[in-house]
Design a protein that fits this description.
5-stranded mixed sheet, 179 residues, signal, cell-cell adhesion mediator activity, single chain, 12 strands, Ig-like_dom, elongated
Length: 179
């Protein structure tokens, strides 16, 4: 009797009835994909979230544009168990271009297949003080003078000039055309 039970159990397992069939499995499908551009300050940090459904549950990893898997970089980048890529706040002198100004992609994979998210251009910006420069220019009284606000290249795309302050502390707004 025991032999017959073991024999029927062996037939049940070898026929594949003990495991879910291939038709019950599904390849990964993204539920949440990160934005294509993510900019953040070194004082705030950021997180890239990626979620995928599938049967069996997909494993989430992150890779660089070149296709290499990302590794944790102590204090600068790590992946949580839920697949979120985390960039914690970092000191100015800890900035690394290969971590803070590069392209990442989320990879979701299970036994059925794998998918790759859109490219995510990540850019960490260092929060720091800067001084805009206005250079003296010679203008004959009654003529038009054009003054330019010179900004450091690392802030140009993040700063817009909305007013000027004269020596007498009078504020000229960009919408002000009186003076």
């Amino acid at each position: 009797m025991v032999v017959i039970y073991l024999l029927s159990l062996a037939l049940f397992v070898s026929s594949g009835l003990a495991e879910p069939s291939r038709k019950d499995q599904r390849g990964p499908v993204f539920r949440t994909e990160p934005s294509s551009r993510v900019e953040f300050s070194n004082s705030s940090g950021t997180e890239l979230r990626c979620n995928a459904d599938g049967i069996p549950t997909p494993r989430l990893t992150w890779q660089t544009r070149e296709g290499g898997n990302t590794r944790d970089v102590a204090g600068l980048r790590y992946t949580r168990s839920d697949g979120t890529l985390v960039f914690p706040p970092f000191a100015r002198n800890d900035y690394r271009q290969d971590v803070h100004d590069t392209v990442y992609q989320c990879l979701a994979a299970n036994t059925v297949g794998s998918i790759v998210s859109r490219e995510v251009h990540v850019r960490g910006v260092i929060k720091q003080r800067f001084n805009p420069q206005v250079y003296d220019d010679f203008v004959v009284r009654g003529n038009t003078a054009v003054l330019r606000c010179h900004l450091p290249t690392f802030v140009k795309e993040y700063v817009s000039v909305d007013s000027w302050i004269r020596n007498d502390d009078y504020v000229l707004k960009m919408t002000d055309t009186r003076n």
